[in-house]
Structures are given as structure tokens and as C-alpha cells.
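Title: Comparing notes on inverse folding

I've been comparing how different people in this forum approach sequence design from structure. To keep things fair, I'm posting one structure and asking everyone to reply with a full sequence. Here's the target:
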């Protein structure tokens, strides 16, 4: 398995395995709903102050976007390091940006 950079996927080591995350349009809509925001400006501001529950919601959406539905479903009970989760979220958002915006 490996992340497809051309699709904007990112790879991260979570819950004992390499996982694929992707900021799809569906994941973006799920994240906006979970965080109660609309648009990138509001999302960027909200991402600066995520609670642990918010981080799990964002991570789960990105995992579903990358096809990692089993981990996304059981994320609350999975052994995921918060620092690794935050890094994975950052990697997924960076992978979705065009090269000039990173």
C-alpha cells in the first residue's frame, strides 16, 4: 500500500499500520459539518483550536476519504497517538494543496 500523491493522498503511521488519508470533497463536507464551519477561511481558523474530539472527527473523515473505513469507524477505541493524529491531519491537508500553496 502507498499513498498516491497525484490524488492528493497522504500516508501516516496510525494504530500500528501505514494508513492512507485523503481530503476528498466528501471528507471536506464531513469536516465542515463536524466543526460547524463553512468555507476554507472558517475552517482554517477553526483548525487552530481543535479539541481532542474534533481532531478525531477530522481524522476519521480523512481516513474515510483515503478508503480506511474500518479504522475510521473504530477510531475512538483505537490506539492512536494524538501527536501522530495531528501530524497525519496536517499531511493530508498539505497533500491536497497545489505545490505552489504548500
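Reply #1:
Here's my take.
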Amino acid at each position: 500500500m502507498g499513498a498516491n500523491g497525484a490524488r492528493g493522498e497522504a500516508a501516516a503511521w496510525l494504530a500500528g499500520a501505514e494508513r492512507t488519508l485523503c481530503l476528498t470533497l466528501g471528507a471536506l463536507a464531513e469536516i465542515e459539518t463536524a466543526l460547524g464551519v463553512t468555507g476554507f477561511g472558517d475552517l482554517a481558523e477553526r483548525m487552530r483550536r481543535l479539541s481532542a474530539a474534533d481532531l478525531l472527527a477530522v481524522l476519521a473523515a480523512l481516513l474515510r476519504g483515503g478508503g480506511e473505513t474500518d479504522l475510521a469507524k473504530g477510531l475512538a477505541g483505537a490506539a492512536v497517538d494524538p501527536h501522530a493524529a495531528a501530524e497525519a491531519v496536517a499531511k493530508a491537508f498539505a497533500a491536497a494543496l497545489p505545490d505552489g500553496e504548500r
